[in-house]
Design goal:
The protein is of the alpha+beta class. 36% of the residues lie in helices and 18% in strands. The strands form 9 sheets. Strands 9, 10, 11, 12, 13, 14 and 17 form a 7-stranded mixed β-sheet that branches. Helix 8 crosses helix 9 and helix 21 crosses helix 22.
């Protein structure tokens, strides 16, 4: 038979769709398995090979679980709101609505062409009103619980995207989407109190099975630090203090100055500080966070303020410096130049005192610190520390100084976090409108929703002006995003909807006065923070009245397996965990963690370079599917390297995989009526290997094992049995679904799909090798190997004789005397000559 991938793949994709092969009965499923791949944002014309790599990895696992008896639910949808989609629409000169109609259709065509087993009857598109109605419901729930608030703050502003960004969307001081250096602006924005959940987000990491680097990234981003708040009294104003947070309070006797951030100086000290220091702070605030972090030369200005070091009672100066960031601790740090490298550099620059308070056993280190030549951040024994001299800085000394400072009333224990509240306002058009109404009349009368209803989860709202704000009633959702021609971002701190009074002019739901609807839209990560809850319920009886059906959710969630990119470690994955925990606390769901098992796939490269549009090396899978077929592409993508690595796509590699596919087809075609003896050992060994490696996402080595099995069968095709080929076909099915379906149906004459067949089981007793390879050494150096049957492995004389007679070994033994022969059973023969 001729193998035509175009005909076969088209044939089976149509048959699977007609038979609803991948559409499980959500209500009647006996063994539910929710297999989820991160949905894409359709910002360009289609998928590239990197998407094909990761999505194929998820599809293989779903097919494997289905053949192991699970009712697999594997949905797909589109993260269609947000900057990515909107910017692409602007680029091509279309409205987002028109652009998405085309791009989502193309995405679906490509995903189908790859042979993925998605349930296309239950999709989610975040920009559809029937979806974002419930995103708005989620925001209202957050507001009513006290977790959403609006406050003026210094925020990250991307001048290219013309919108604010959450801290998590700023990478090394640049916009994570476009790479533009981020600026700071003071704007009134909506935030969500994710910091209320910092401890639970951190603690629950030990309860979930995630790729370690992703869990570690979340741990570092939450950044829990246990330390002391220490008060330094200002000398000119007895009632005012500068509070410093530190984890290294044991070095306080060496604090010879304080440094405050520009933000701290402007907010707290500007009226008393020197004019020069205020000007410096104002200029520093114009810099990006990246500039401030990476500025190698330390800069700063003396504020002319002094404080009292509470340990020594000495006056020390206060400086302002841009390397101190407002979000770190309190925005003020104590300078201990003998034991902190940055403080040392600063002290040298401004000729400030350097006092050693830790002594070291290493004389060279000790002398260099004592002489002010370097800083040492290692623990040591306390010196120049009054009654604590001689104590260890990392043990009793640290504890005793803490107790002493607390007893003096100048310190208290304080836990700080790197995590900041989630900023969800966006001054763009393409997003779900924030469902809030502001009434100025109510604000003047101190009326508002939270004035009349206490937040169910977060009760104290003294930190913002809540008066005047009301959520849109659920019965009035969705607040529909109007289609407007002038949707491009303005870059003025408000979104395009602020130009449309027909949208924002509304009636106050409380007093009936004229009010104003919020014109900012929500961050797209709000859309994706709960999408996994919607999938199984899209066609439920409650789909129009609830965001997710209670019974369906109880049956199918949490997600059993989630696969996606590690780049979302502190973005989507953090936000989804937070939202799930809130919904749990509000009794909407019965679980705290959305993804108990998450595997992070790697990023593909092309010919040794990172795949990107700017490099012009993005690989469109369409051309490869056209030329080689989806199965060849799937096998190649999975064979290139481990799923969590950085596989390098090269055209020469896929040509080699095409030859393997033809080798497979010829083997099945020629051996369809095979009557030989079963290759018991190699077959069961292969089943075991492939089963274990697919279970652990080691797809590349699983395919290598299948290649070895094929080679073993090809060595003596006359001995092949039908069972050998049936097992091979089933083990290949997750990787090459079209080819194996064709073989299963047309060659093996099965009526039911191979993807509904039972995964092969191995017999441990049959895995013992029929032949064992024994290494042969001469004077301890490997010179060859021989194969010995199971029966002969116990017979030393037989093994030694076979080794001596091997042609490769014999040449090393010519004209020599064997003084000793050492045989390690089943492993090594060593001739000492």
């Amino acid at each position: 038979m001729k193998y035509s991938h175009k005909e076969i793949e088209k044939k089976w994709q149509a048959k699977w769709n007609a038979d609803h092969l991948y559409t499980p009965n959500i209500n009647a499923a006996v063994k539910p398995f929710y297999n989820l791949f991160m949905f894409p944002y359709p910002s360009a014309e289609g998928l590239h090979a990197g998407h094909a790599f990761s999505s194929t990895g998820g599809d293989i696992y779903g097919r494997f679980k289905r053949m192991n008896g699970y009712d697999v639910f594997q949905p797909m949808g589109y993260d269609s709101f947000g900057i990515h989609s909107e910017n692409y629409a602007i680029k091509v000169g279309e409205t987002p609505q028109v652009m998405l109609t085309r791009t989502t259709a193309n995405y679906e065509r490509q995903l189908r062409s790859l042979g993925h087993g998605y349930d296309w009857t239950r999709t989610v598109t975040t920009s559809d009103p029937d979806y974002y109605k419930w995103t708005q419901w989620l925001f209202v729930e957050l507001f009513k619980s006290g977790l959403a608030y609006r406050k003026e703050a210094s925020v990250n502003w991307c001048p290219s995207c013309k919108t604010v960004l959450a801290d998590e969307q700023v990478i090394d001081g640049k916009c994570e989407r476009c790479g533009t250096v981020v600026e700071k602006k003071n704007l009134a924005q909506w935030f969500v109190r994710i910091t209320d959940y910092a401890d639970r987000l951190l603690d629950n990491l030990s309860k979930i099975d995630w790729t370690p680097k992703v869990a570690q990234a979340q741990k570092q981003w939450i950044g829990k630090g246990i330390g002391l708040n220490i008060s330094f009294q200002l000398t000119h104003q007895t009632e005012k203090k500068i509070v410093v947070w530190t984890k290294y309070w044991e070095t306080i006797f060496g604090a010879t100055f304080l440094v405050v951030s520009p933000e701290y100086l402007i907010a707290e000290l500007a009226p008393q500080a020197s004019v020069e220091s205020v000007r410096y702070a104002e200029h520093a605030l114009e810099k990006s966070a990246d500039e401030r972090r990476t500025n190698r030369e330390k800069t700063g200005v003396d504020t002319n303020l002094k404080v009292i070091n509470p340990s020594t009672q000495e006056e020390i100066p206060v400086y302002v410096a841009d390397y101190v960031m407002d979000g770190v601790g309190t925005g003020a740090v104590m300078g201990v130049p003998a034991h902190d490298a940055r403080d040392f550099e600063f002290a040298k620059k401004f000729s400030l005192p350097i006092v050693q308070v830790l002594s070291y056993a290493n004389a060279d280190i000790n002398d260099s610190v004592k002489n002010g030549e370097r800083a040492s951040e290692e623990p040591g024994d306390l010196v120049n520390s009054d009654i604590f001299n001689g104590l260890s800085s990392s043990a009793e000394g640290k504890n005793q100084i803490k107790d002493w400072l607390i007893e003096k009333g100048v310190s208290e224990e304080q836990t700080n976090y790197h995590l900041r509240d989630w900023l969800i306002s966006r001054q763009r058009y393409w997003g779900a409108p924030i469902p809030m109404i502001y009434c100025e009349h109510c604000a003047k009368n101190e009326d508002g929703y939270l004035m009349m209803h206490e937040g169910s989860l977060h009760k104290n709202h003294d930190d913002w002006q809540a008066a005047g704000w009301y959520p849109v009633d659920e019965q009035n959702l969705p607040v529909t995003l109007p289609e407007v021609a002038d949707y491009k971002p303005r870059g003025e701190g408000t979104g395009p909807l602020a130009d449309h009074p027909e949208f924002f002019t509304v009636t106050c739901p409380h007093c009936g006065s004229e009010a104003r609807r919020e014109t900012d839209v929500m961050d797209t990560f709000m859309d994706s923070s709960w999408y996994f809850l919607r999938y199984p319920s899209t066609d439920s009886e409650t789909a129009e009245t609830k965001p997710f059906d209670p019974e369906v959710t109880k049956k199918w969630l949490p997600v059993h397996f989630y696969l996606g990119g590690a780049e979302h470690a502190v973005l989507h994955l953090m936000y989804a965990r937070f939202v799930t925990q809130v919904l749990y606390d509000l009794n909407h769901i019965s679980f705290e963690e959305p993804f108990p098992k998450f595997f992070a796939n790697g990023l593909m490269i092309k010919d040794g370079a990172k795949m990107s549009k700017s490099r012009g090396n993005v690989v469109n899978p369409d051309s490869y599917i056209e030329k080689f077929g989806a199965d060849t592409l799937r096998l190649y993508l999975m064979f290139m390297g481990p799923m969590d690595g950085s596989p390098d796509f090269r055209d020469t590699g896929i040509e080699g995989m095409q030859r393997f596919v033809m080798k497979l087809w010829n083997l099945f075609d020629k051996g369809h009526d095979a009557q030989g003896h079963v290759y018991d050992s190699v077959m069961h060994k292969t089943i075991k290997r492939v089963t274990e490696e697919v279970s652990d996402f080691r797809y590349n080595t699983a395919i290598a094992g299948l290649m070895e099995y094929v080679n073993a069968l090809k060595e003596n095709e006359a001995e092949i049995s039908r069972e050998n080929l049936v097992v091979l076909c089933q083990l290949l099915a997750p990787f090459a679904p079209h080819l194996t379906e064709e073989v299963w149906s047309e060659i093996f004459k099965n009526e039911k799909s191979i993807h509904l067949s039972e995964w092969p089981k191995y017999d441990e007793t049959k895995i013992i090798a029929e032949k064992i390879v024994v290494a042969v050494q001469i004077n301890g150096k490997l010179r060859g190997q021989v194969e010995v049957s199971k029966e002969d492995i116990e017979k030393e004389d037989s093994v030694v004789s076979k080794a001596k007679s091997d042609s490769q070994i014999a040449k090393w033994l010519e004209s020599t005397e064997i003084k000793k022969t050492i045989y390690v059973k089943g492993k090594i023969v060593n001739f000492v000559i």
